[in-house]
Amino acid sequence: MTARIRLATDLDQGEVLRLRLEFIADVRGVGAATFEPAFVDATRAYLDDVTRLGRIRSWLARPADASPAVGIISVLRNDAPPLPEQHLAHEGYVVNLWIAPSARRQGIARALLQTAIDDAASWGLRRLYLFATDDGRPLYEDSGFAPDPRWMARRIDATA
């Protein structure tokens, strides 16, 4: 399958939302239709907000026949304090890279990832980071991403 990659626009928000939900459903092993409407609405509102603020870039992979997109990568630009060795004050969090199962193993994920990597410097990013799935890890390693044992995270219970 040949896919054309292009930067998503405001007109693509519905497709970006659909693909984000498909990504989450795939990672969790459920169908996207099982998500509660409140979650879908919260995701839509979030995407609208970060898009309006210019804090996210998404690229879509669309088959040559112009059918719906079969892949997406989204990078969220986050502020980060400058470092002595790197004065740039932005980092890019790859919030999703997803390819429809029927379009996998055809180089689309690699092309999407390379597009985001190529764009990072023009957006003023000093690094890209992500949380890799086991299936995605080889692609990220082949593309120059390395695990960082210093990174730790703690979930916060917002109801407490």
Give the topology, please.
Blueprint: E1 3-7, H1 13-28, H2 37-52, E2 56-63, E3 71-79, E4 90-99, H3 108-120, E5 128-129, H4 137-142
Parallel strand pairs: 4-5
Antiparallel strand pairs: 1-2, 2-3, 3-4
Instruction: Specify the CATH architecture.
Output: 3-Layer(aba) Sandwich
Shape: globular
Give the termini distance in whole angstroms: 49 Å
CATH superfamily (homologous) name: Gcn5-related N-acetyltransferase (GNAT)
Q: Largest sheet at a glance?
A: 5 strands, mixed
Query: What is the percent of helical residues?
Result: 25-40%
Number of strands: 5
Helix vs. strand class: alpha+beta
The average pLDDT value, as a whole number, equals 94
Question: Which residues sit in consecutive blocks of at least 5 with pLDDT less than 50?
Answer: none
Order of helices and strands: EHHEEEHEH
**CATH class value:** Alpha Beta
CATH topological fold name: Aminopeptidase
Q: For the CA atoms, what is the radius of gyration?
A: 16 Å
Explain what this protein looks like in three dimensions.
The structure is a single chain. This protein has 160 residues and is an alpha+beta fold. It has a single domain, classed as 3-Layer(aba) Sandwich (Aminopeptidase), CATH 3.40.630.30. It is 32% helix and 21% strand. The chain contains 4 helices and 5 strands; from the N terminus they run βααβββαβα. It has a 5-stranded mixed sheet, sandwiched between helices. Helix 3 (108-120) links the parallel strand 4 and strand 5 (128-129). Helix 1 packs across helix 2. The radius of gyration is 16 Å and the shape is globular. The N and C termini lie far apart (49 Å). The mean pLDDT is 94.
